[in-house]
Amino acid sequence: MRINKWLNIPALFVLMIGCTVHPDALASEKSVFRQRGEASYYARNLHGQETASGEIFNNNKLVAAHKTLPLGSKVQVTNLQNNKAVTVRINDRGPFKRGRIIDLSRAAAKKIDLLEDGTAPVRIVRID
């Protein structure tokens, strides 16, 4: 018995149409930057110094330093010891101490109760 190979084409066409993904659906599925590690905060003597972005560092603003995220990125930093979170803008590079993933301004560190210990395990999620 000979099977006509053209008989399966309509079924194949319907299958292909059902499996297509609209381009807008792909655009909305951006990968989200997430990172876990140790956070610290800036020393007071850096207040007033120029950052990698060119702005003057202000320990009273909600800003931070990260090694690779684009300058101007906004991230939510959550202290994993108490679940307190703060949103900061990346305006500098660092930290340069091994094992640290982000340096927060004093104001940001205060919001997540990081000041007393000086460091804490955190989760970073890019939100912009």
Radius of gyration: 24 Å
- Full CATH superfamily name: RlpA-like domain
Reading the helices and strands in chain order gives: HHEEEEEHE
Low-confidence stretches: 11-19, 21-28
Helix content: 10-25%
* Protein structure class: alpha/beta
* Count of discrete domains: 1
Look at the structure and give the CATH class.
Mainly Beta
Helix-strand layout with pairing:
Layout lengths: L8 H11 L3 H5 L6 E8 L21 E3 L8 E6 L5 E8 L7 E5 L1 H6 L7 E8 L2
Parallel strand pairs: 1-5, 2-4
Antiparallel strand pairs: 1-6, 2-5, 3-4, 3-6
Describe this structure in words.
The chain is of the alpha/beta class. It has a single domain (32-126), classed as Barwin-like endoglucanases. 17% of the residues lie in helices and 30% in strands. The chain is built from 3 helices and 6 strands; from the N terminus they run ααβββββαβ. It is globular and about 30 Å long.
Brief characterization of the structure:
With 128 residues, the protein is of the alpha/beta class.
Short descriptors:
single chain; 128 residues; alpha/beta; 6-stranded mixed beta barrel; 3 helices; 6 strands; 17% helix
